[in-house]
Amino acid sequence: MNLEQLRGFVAVADIGHFTRAAETLRVAQPSLSRQIATLEQEVGSELFHRARGNITLTSAGETLLPRARRMLADADAIRVEMGEIAGLQRGRVRLGATPTLCVSLVAEAMTAFHPAHPGIGLQLTEAGSRLLIERLTAGELDMALITLSEGLPAGETALVRTPLLTEELVVVSAATAPPISESAIDIALLATLPLVAFAQSYDLRAATDAAFRSAGLAPTVVIEGAEMDAVLRFVERGLGVAVVPATVLVDRPTLRAVRLIEPRLTRTISIAHRSDVNPTRAAEAMRELIIATAAGLAEASPETLRLVR
């Protein structure tokens, strides 16, 4: 049973005449007759009473007709929906990103993407890089923005990782507080300042702790274990300083930042996807916009952000 057979069957049922139905469908009358005969063989029953000049439905035909109409309507709806998806009018993208990138790069990209493609929904997963890689490998995400400095874990060769940006980690304080320094501070001065520290699961926390250990210093932690939004809010309230990626400062006038030197800490932002899965049109459009947004951020902050070419 195929759609052409069903379309011919419905036309004959509506018009009550094989020749006129064939003209309406723009097919030869013998071809239409063969389609109906084949359909009758497949359903195992005659669908029409064939009397000269009088074509009527059998009981089997009356049973099939409403179902055939629904099947044809469903097929037309599928064509429309597939056309809308291909034309980026409808669809969904499953994007994973680390918490710091959700409040920076992802937010900036969606500000441009949603008005251009309002019918494309975003399903966002916010998690650490390693968990995002697990979900991407399992097929639960279309792409992920990750910050693993050492590259993909062993065994993840099915994933393609494209580096986008290298960004510095900077020290932020409340804009209303006295400036820490005119331009930059070192790890020794940072160790004397009240520090709002991230949860242990954050890559940022691991990088900062390693820098203190390497210098033989211990930080002055006043709040520990917070997530990104809470860390930024505590800093805005003047409770301490924090070490954060430079991209977090986009559109945050309540924060002031200075560069951290000796050591200079950086991280690389990458976008990853599975090599064995073809991206949807919507996913590819979002990926291209994320890449363009990353380039725009680098252009706006050349001191702390650099494109990876």
Could you characterize what this model shows?
It is a single chain. This protein is an alpha/beta fold and 309 residues long. It has ten helices and 13 strands. Strands 3, 4, 5, 6, 7, 10, 11, 12 and 13 form a nine-stranded mixed sheet that branches. The radius of gyration is 31 Å and the shape is rod-shaped. The mean pLDDT is 87.
Give short descriptive properties of this protein.
single chain, 309 residues, alpha/beta, Arc Repressor Mutant, subunit A, D-Maltodextrin-Binding Protein, domain 2, 3 domains, nine-stranded mixed sheet, two-stranded antiparallel ribbon, 10 helices, 25% strand
The description of the largest β-sheet is: 9 strands, mixed
- The CATH class name of the largest domain reads Alpha Beta
Strand content: 25-35%
**Using DSSP, what is the number of strands?**
13
Kindly provide the radius of gyration, computed on alpha-carbon positions and rounded to a whole number of angstroms.
31 Å
Domain count, please report it. Answer: 3
Helix amount:
40-55%
**What class would the helix/strand composition place it in?**
alpha/beta
Give the name of the CATH architecture of the largest domain.
3-Layer(aba) Sandwich
Which regions are unreliable across 5 or more consecutive residues at pLDDT < 50? none
Task: Quote the CATH topology of the largest domain.
Answer: D-Maltodextrin-Binding Protein, domain 2
Order of helices and strands: HHHEEHEHEHEEEHEHEHEEEHE
The CATH superfamily of the largest domain turns out to be Periplasmic binding protein-like II
Mean pLDDT: 87
The number of distinct helices, counting runs of at least 4 residues, comes to: 10
Distance between the termini: 54 Å
